[in-house]
Structure formats: structure tokens, C-alpha cells
Specification:
The complex is a heterodimer of chains A (324) and B (277). Chain A has helices at residues 20-36, 76-90, 101-113, 222-231, 240-244, 275-278, 310-322, and strands at residues 7-11, 13-14, 17-18, 40-46, 62-67, 94-98, 118-122, 124-127, 133-138, 144-149, 156-160, 176-180, 192-198, 210-214, 235-238, 265-269, 286-291, 304-307. Helix content of chain A is 24%, strand content 27%. A 7-stranded parallel sheet of chain A has the order 7-11-6-1-4-5-12, sandwiched between helices. Chain A contains 7 helices and 18 strands. By secondary structure, chain A is α/β, with parallel strands linked by helices. In chain A, helix 2 packs across helix 3 (101-113) and helix 4 (222-231) runs parallel beside helix 7. Chain A folds into 2 domains: 7-188, 3-Layer(aba) Sandwich (Rossmann fold), CATH 3.40.50; 205-322, 3-Layer(aba) Sandwich (Rossmann fold). Chain B is α/β, with parallel strands linked by helices and 277 residues long. Chain B folds into 2 domains: 2-209, HUPs (Rossmann fold); 237-277, no CATH class. In chain B, the strands form 3 sheets. Chain B has a 9-stranded mixed sheet with strand order 11-10-9-12-8-1-6-7-13, with helices on both faces. A two-stranded antiparallel sheet of chain B has the order 2-5. In chain B, helix 3 crosses helix 4 (128-136). The termini of chain B are far apart. Classes of the chains: A alpha/beta (324), B alpha/beta (277). Chains A and B meet through helix 2, helix 3, strand 7, strand 9 and strand 10 of A and helix 3, helix 4, strand 9, strand 10 and strand 11 of B.
Chain lengths: 324, 277
């Protein structure tokens, strides 16, 4: 059996590639495992075991690769069952997952299956004086965050947003790979995939150098946000209000429930500045905010704040920058 | 078809203030709303009922003062409303919350479909629907923007993922989480308003629910808040200026150029904008 303080990371795959967030977490988990004095185990599932060795290069002491041709796509019940089996025999103290759509789908189901605690969307991970893993989660508007622990049950399941931790540099290949071949058939699957429509290159806001974010104050006019982003060679981001209203797709969501970004510059248009949003831009190099309300909290999180109507300001900016 | 919609009432985040001395949230006087994506879940359920017949029940967990929000759901079109309300439900994390809601579904005799919003705007864990599905042993489809019942006993759900959309078939009963903004929520039907105001909302306490006392509320919650701290905000310049639009635009452009977005030239020169390498 593995050491009682072992830290496991679920490395989510798309075909033969790992999701970047899984590798980001592995880098951080190495430090967590060292603080807890346990081993770092990466667990992955998919069709073919070829990519599994790669995980050793990102810090895993040991890799568990669950392999079956049917695992080429994610399915809640099949993946939950397989992870459950490995969790029960390995009994780790911590399981970390990337807060992707499928990662969250799995984490929520698995946590209840194992009757354990789940901390979602942490923006920082620390080991405290009592050797507990503390996941920090931002709270309501006033700039406070809560440190959540799961002291009595295991594993403590924690999901981490993409972009929170830096992508580690791969090192030399190391670590033992154990391949698990579960011999699945269709009955293990809860869903039947009818169709998959790829989006081509989805937006990856975590890698964008320039970001223009629209909030409530845009009144839904994302065409204008888009124009400025295009002018600056950047991507479009959005606050929760904007994605909830259906003004723009959820993949553009920045903040605690979206992505944490690291642009050189972010221009924030008409966002009030709730902490759930500002955690998503706090790693930005420079923050410019435009808001009509001089008391908007966003100005506390900005290097340059402009009090004014964003419409005419953006239009003028686009004209000056784009039509030269 | 019997559909249960889980609905949460959340404080408006912009109105919650934090007492930094006591490190507690001050919720008094804060107005609440129905969690936005739960309204998209309600709309999804109502549309399926309108097409296939059946009954839509809204189910919530919270204090008695949630009742007016459940009446809003009735006025929008739900057939009945049930509130799980007991002090012992308080302090629940995702494990205890999903257990309590699942027990609520059981107490209603189960459902063909449980429809939830994909995440709440306050807690925001996005994990409760999956938990409800596991407690009930139902199939699940999360982050769904389109839902159909192509044949009896089967659900077809379109899941929106980072790299595309996945359409899956799954057997009923099932739990579905609906993406915020997935649909246009119908307006309150004012002809239903007086009915909604007078309707009896069934309130179920812990004893009536017959839930395991060790699985609800704080007791049933394995996660614990170990500490609260101020968010360490990075040092920002916090320069705030009020300028007319043209001057404001020039100020921003100047700053962008200073930051080395070298492709941005002044208004009188330079080439077309291009992406920074």
C-alpha cells in the first residue's frame, strides 16, 4: 500500500495529450507531497498507455495508467468506478483534479461515492502546521478567502482552476508506470456518445498576453469588446454576469469559476470588481479598468482606472489604434 | 414525466460586505435572488413538460424566508414547490447538501429527471448536481445547453466542453446540470400570480424527511473552514482619473504603448494592428 500521506493527481487526457491544468497541478503537487512527506502519484485513464510515462517528467514518483480502448472518451460512471477502485486500494490522503468540465463532472460524483469532502476551485494550496492540506477559496465581494480542510476523511478531493499554477518544465523521465487493464465492456458506461463536435481551437485565456474583459456595464455589447480585443491582438474575457446573461460563451469566463489569467495587460470594461472576478486577473501585469461608477471596487484592483462611459471611450480607442 | 428542479436562493454578491475585524460575512439587509443558472434549469424543465406533459416540482433547501422565491418559480410556471427547511440542515457542504436534496427527491417519490443549475453564484462549487446523482444512483449529464427526450426512457443531452460539444444519450432517471445562459427564461406569467401567492408550499423538516442526522448539515460535512484571511491583492497603482472620452482613450492608448505593445502606434502613424508575437 502507498504511504499514508500520498498525494494523487488525476491527469486528464484528450487523446494522447494531457490537459495543461493537470500538468500545472502536478508541479504544485510535488511541493505538497514533499511537505506532507508522502509520494506523488499521477493517475490517468485513456485508450493506450503510451503517454503515461510523460507524467514522471512532471514530478510524479509513480504513475497509474488505466488503459482500455473504450476509455478513449470520458464517461462519468466508467471513470468514477475505475478511480474508486484505485482510491480504495491506494488510500491516498489527497486527490487533486483540474476543474475542467469533465474533471468537475468526475470530482463531484467520486467525492460522494467515497463519502468524502470536496473543495472546489481553489486558488492556492498550502500545508498547514498540522500537516493538513488547506485549499484557499475566495469568498464574497469584500476581499476575503476561506481556507478549507478535510480533516477526518480521505482522500481530501480538491479541484484547481486552469492557470492557477505555472506549467512546470518537464524533467528527465522517472517514476514507475503501472498499467491497469480493466477489460471493460459497454455496460460499464452510463452514457452513449451520439456526436462530438469539435470547436477547433477553443479560446485559451490562460495563455493570452492581452485580454479585454467585458462585464455588466457593457450592457451585452460584446461586439465592442471584441473590436478592442482585436485591435490589441488579444482575447475576449467576460465576467460571470455577462456569461450568465448569455452575452458570450462560458469559455470566456474569467475568475474563480472561470480561468485565472496571466496577461501582460488586461483592460476591464464595465465590471464592478467582485473578488470572484478579480482573482482571475490578479496575476496580470497591468490592469486598466473603465467604469462609470467612481466607487466601483474594480478600481482597487486596477493600475489605471478611468471613470466614464465605456462606449465612447472604447470607440475612440478603437478608432485611434485600429485605423491608423 | 416527473421533473424536479433544484433551486437555490443566493445573496446578491455585490451587496454582501465583509466585517474584516470579525472576519464574517454581513448578510443582513442583503437582497437575494434565485441563482441565475437555476432559472435556466427551470426553463429547461418547463419546456420539456410543455412538450411531453408531466409535472415540474421545484425543490429548495433553506430557511422559511426562501418561500417568496419559490412562489416566483410557481408564477413562472412550476406546478408545485417544496422547501426542505430545518436548522439542522445549516452549515452543509457539498456532500451534506447533495445528500439532503437527494433525500428530498426520494421523499417526493423520485423523479424521471432532476434538473439543476450548473453552479451557484455564491458557493460556486459546481459539484452538487453530480453529488445528487450519486446519492440517488441516477445517471448524470453536466454542463448541458440542450436537452431532449427522443424516446421514452431516454434523454439526449448536449454537453458543452472546453474543446467542443458532446451529445450523449443516457437512460432515465437522470440528473442534469444546465449551463447558465443556456436558454431565455420565460417571464413571470402574471395570470398565475394570484395562484402562486396563495399556493401551499410544502415545508419538510429533518424529522419528516427521515434523513440520517449524521449526514446532514454541519455534522454531515467533512470539509471545515480552517481559517479566513484577506485576499492578498497584488500591489496596484490604483490611479483613478475622470476624463472625457477622447482624453480617456488617449490616456489608455498612451499606457498601452508604454507597456510595450509596440504594434500600437499613435493615432497619426504606424501599421495595422497585429497580434503580438
Amino acid at each position: 500500500m502507498s504511504g499514508s500521506e500520498s498525494v494523487w493527481v488525476y491527469a486528464e487526457r484528450r487523446g494522447n495529450l494531457f490537459r495543461p491544468v493537470s500538468l500545472e497541478i502536478l508541479g504544485k503537487a510535488r511541493a505538497v507531497a514533499d511537505s506532507l512527506g508522502g509520494e506523488l502519484v499521477a493517475i490517468t485513464a485513456g485508450a493506450g498507455d503510451a503517454p503515461a510515462r510523460e507524467l514522471g517528467r512532471y514530478g510524479a514518483d509513480r504513475v497509474i495508467a488505466i488503459e482500455d480502448p473504450l476509455l478513449r472518451r470520458y464517461d462519468t460512471l466508467a471513470y468514477t468506478r475505475l478511480l474508486e477502485t484505485e482510491m480504495r486500494s491506494g488510500n491516498p490522503s489527497v486527490l487533486l483534479l483540474g476543474a475542467t468540465r469533465d474533471g468537475q463532472d468526475l470530482a463531484g460524483r467520486l467525492a460522494v461515492r467515497l463519502r468524502t469532502g470536496l473543495t472546489a476551485h481553489v486558488t492556492a494550496l498550502e500545508v498547514d502546521g498540522e500537516h493538513r492540506l488547506v485549499g484557499w477559496v475566495p469568498g464574497f465581494g469584500g476581499g476575503i478567502e476561506a481556507g478549507i480542510v478535510c480533516p477526518e476523511r480521505r482522500p481530501a478531493i480538491v479541484t484547481v482552476r486552469p492557470g492557477v499554477f505555472p506549467l512546470p518544465e518537464p524533467g528527465a523521465a522517472r517514476g514507475d508506470v503501472r498499467v491497469v487493464r480493466p477489460a471493460l465492456d459497454e455496460t460499464a458506461f452510463g452514457t452513449h456518445r451520439v456526436e462530438f463536435e469539435p470547436k477547433g481551437f477553443g479560446v485559451d485565456l490562460t495563455r493570452s498576453e492581452v485580454l479585454v474583459v467585458g462585464g455588466r456595464g457593457t450592457g451585452g455589447d460584446f461586439a465592442r469588446v471584441q473590436r478592442l480585443a482585436h485591435c490589441l491582438g488579444g482575447e475576449v474575457g467576460a465576467t460571470r454576469v455577462a456569461t450568465d446573461a448569455g452575452w458570450i460563451e462560458r469559455e470566456h469566463l474569467v475568475g474563480q469559476t472561470g480561468v485565472v489569467t496571466h496577461p501582460k495587460v488586461v483592460v476591464v470594461l464595465g465590471a464592478s470588481g467582485a473578488v470572484q472576478f478579480t482573482v482571475g486577473i490578479e496575476k496580470a501585469g497591468f490592469v486598466i479598468a473603465v467604469n462609470r461608477d467612481p466607487d466601483a471596487p474594480i478600481f482597487e484592483s486596477a493600475d489605471l482606472g478611468i471613470v466614464g462611459d465605456l462606449g465612447p471611450i472604447v470607440d475612440r480607442l478603437v478608432k485611434d489604434l485600429g485605423e491608423a | 414525466m416527473r421533473i424536479i428542479v433544484c433551486l437555490k436562493v443566493v445573496p446578491r454578491p455585490e451587496e454582501v460586505r465583509v466585517d474584516l475585524e470579525k472576519k464574517v460575512l454581513e448578510r443582513s439587509g442583503v437582497r437575494s435572488v434565485i441563482n441565475p443558472s437555476d432559472l435556466n434549469a427551470l426553463e429547461t424543465a418547463l419546456a420539456l413538460r410543455d412538450l411531453h406533459g408531466g409535472r415540474v416540482t421545484v425543490l429548495s433547501m433553506g430557511p422559511p424566508n426562501f418561500e417568496p422565491y419559490l412562489r416566483v418559480a410557481l408564477a413562472v410556471g412550476a406546478d408545485e414547490a417544496v422547501l426542505l427547511s430545518d436548522r439542522s440542515f445549516g452549515g452543509a457542504d457539498t456532500l451534506a447538501t447533495s445528500y439532503t436534496l437527494a433525500e428530498g427527491v426520494r421523499s417526493l417519490g423520485g423523479a424521471d429527471m432532476v434538473v439543476c443549475g450548473d453552479e451557484s453564484s455564491d458557493g460556486g462549487t459546481s459539484q452538487v448536481p453530480q453529488g445528487v446523482a450519486e446519492w440517488l444512483g441516477y445517471a448524470q449529464a453536466t454542463y448541458v445547453d440542450r436537452l431532449e427526450v427522443p424516446s421514452s426512457g431516454t434523454l439526449r443531452a448536449r454537453r458543452v466542453l472546453e474543446d467542443g460539444t458532446e451529445t450523449v444519450d443516457l437512460p432515465l432517471p437522470a440528473v442534469v446540470s444546465v449551463l447558465g445562459g443556456a436558454n431565455d427564461v420565460r417571464f413571470i406569467d402574471y395570470s398565475r400570480w394570484s395562484m402562486a401567492e396563495l399556493a401551499t408550499i410544502r415545508v419538510i423538516d429533518a424529522a419528516t424527511l427521515g434523513a440520517d442526522p449524521n449526514a446532514i448539515g454541519l455534522k454531515g460535512s467533512p470539509t471545515v473552514v480552517a481559517g479566513l484571511r484577506e485576499v492578498r491583492k497584488p500591489g496596484r497603482r490604483r490611479e483613478v482619473v475622470t476624463l472625457p472620452p477622447d482624453a480617456a482613450a488617449e490616456r489608455v492608448a498612451e499606457e498601452l504603448r508604454r507597456l510595450g505593445l509596440s504594434h500600437l502606434e499613435g493615432p497619426t502613424g504606424g501599421g495595422p494592428a497585429r497580434r503580438p508575437s
